[in-house]
Design a protein that fits this description.
Blueprint lengths: L1 E6 L8 E6 L7 E10 L2 H7 L16 E8 L11 E4 L2 E3 L5 H4 L11 E2 L19 E5 L4 E2 L7 H4 L5 H11 L7 E5 L5 H10 L3 E6 L5 H7 L3 E4 L3 H5 L5 E6 L8 H4 L2 E9 L12 H5 L4 E4 L5 H14 L5 E5 L3 H9 L6 E5 L6
Parallel strand pairs: 10-11, 10-13, 11-12, 13-14, 14-15, 16-17
Antiparallel strand pairs: 1-2, 3-4, 3-8, 3-17, 4-5, 5-9, 6-7
Helix pairs in contact: 4-5, 4-10
């Protein structure tokens, strides 16, 4: 079927209205009318070919919330009319050790991204959520239990939410744990909300004094301006876990020094240039760790959505019209958004 979308034909051209084809639903497929799609920095990197390997036309978007319009004969977990989500993956090999453990994001044969991933469907690569409709294997469709009035703000949970939830769960964040969240942006603001709801004592780190009150409002128990050495020193050797969401190159030693013995600093932001090499003595003498984490598997993403629905957690968003996407990209590069843009997909028709 033909559907309207927004995409780019080259790295140096603006996004524009295009028409794309979606496959007819097969036995294990779910057809979805997209209502909202969040705007992730990955969208910008991919469509501008900043990571290389972009296949055009490129239709970004992997924070999708929509309504089921058709299901294949083998589909039982969702029905026509259900509100569902689609995140960063639409398939994986499903038979490697990682997939068998429900860790499709670490698929040993490479997961299929919601856009720019290989697919037998025309045009040979996946096209994302900046479109009116999508067809996805039922194994990669997620149920959304939030109130209908929250659906736009649910969309960023499909990337920003799970990217922060997965490491918080893996490193057992909860009551009695002191947890730091570095960076109060699209990812970091979700990290603060989730860690707070999980019962941890949450300390938000920001380079901007102006974000202090914002971070407290999001659920932080304390806020540290990381450029202030006195504020940082007060927290030396006290953290069980620190989640670093900053995607710019920076000094990791300032944060490893804040960890207790056996504490972990986990990175979820990929910088354009490598971080300065960390001081290994700070790791060796306290058995500290620096780790990384990538989104989450489908079961874990469903767990996160259910937790957020139960606790009334959504992203802080600014709604935009589809035609405003290039302006949104420019603002996103300046960090001029609190804290995630979401596209009202109905405006594609305009």
């Amino acid at each position: 079927m033909t559907t309207k979308a927004y995409g780019a034909y080259a790295a140096d051209t603006p996004l524009e209205p295009i028409e794309i084809e979606r496959r007819a639903p097969g036995a294990d497929d779910v057809a979805i009318a997209i209502l909202y799609c969040g705007v992730c920095h990955s969208d910008l990197h991919q469509v501008r070919s900043e990571w290389g390997g972009t296949i055009y036309p490129c239709v970004p978007g992997h924070e999708i919330v929509g309504r089921v319009t058709a299901v294949g004969a083998s589909v039982s977990k969702v029905a026509v009319g259900d509100i569902v989500g689609v995140g960063c993956m639409v398939d994986s090999c499903r038979h490697c050790a990682a997939c068998d453990e429900g860790l499709e994001q670490y698929c040993e044969n490479g997961f299929v991204g919601t856009y720019n991933g290989p697919t037998p469907d025309a045009p040979g690569h996946t096209l994302g959520g900046y479109s009116q409709a999508i067809v996805v294997k039922d194994a990669f469709v997620l149920k959304v239990g939030h109130d209908a009035r929250q659906l736009a703000a649910v969309a960023p949970l499909l990337c920003a939410g799970i990217t922060t939830w997965s490491p918080l769960r893996h490193w057992n964040v909860g009551p009695g744990k002191k947890v730091g969240i570095v960076g109060i942006g699209g990812l970091g603001h979700m990290g603060v909300k989730l860690a707070h709801a999980m019962g941890a004592h949450v300390v938000a780190f920001t380079t901007s004094e102006g974000k202090r009150q914002d971070a407290l409002a999001l659920g932080a128990d304390e806020v540290v301006v990381s450029k202030n050495p006195d504020e940082m020193a007060q927290h030396a050797n006290t953290f069980d876990f620190i989640l670093d969401t900053v995607a710019a190159s920076h000094d990791l030693d300032a944060f490893t020094a804040l960890l207790k013995r056996d504490g972990t600093l986990t990175l979820v932001g990929v910088p354009e240039h490598a971080h300065p090499s960390p001081d290994v003595s700070a790791l060796i003498f306290k058995r500290r760790s620096i780790a990384g984490s990538l989104i989450g598997g489908i079961a874990e993403t469903q767990e996160m959505l259910d937790f957020c629905a139960k606790h009334g957690i959504v992203a802080e968003i600014e709604m935009i019209r589809m035609a405003e996407i290039d302006t949104a990209y420019e603002r996103m590069q300046r960090s001029d958004v609190k804290y995630r843009f979401v596209i009202d997909i109905a405006t594609i028709a305009d």
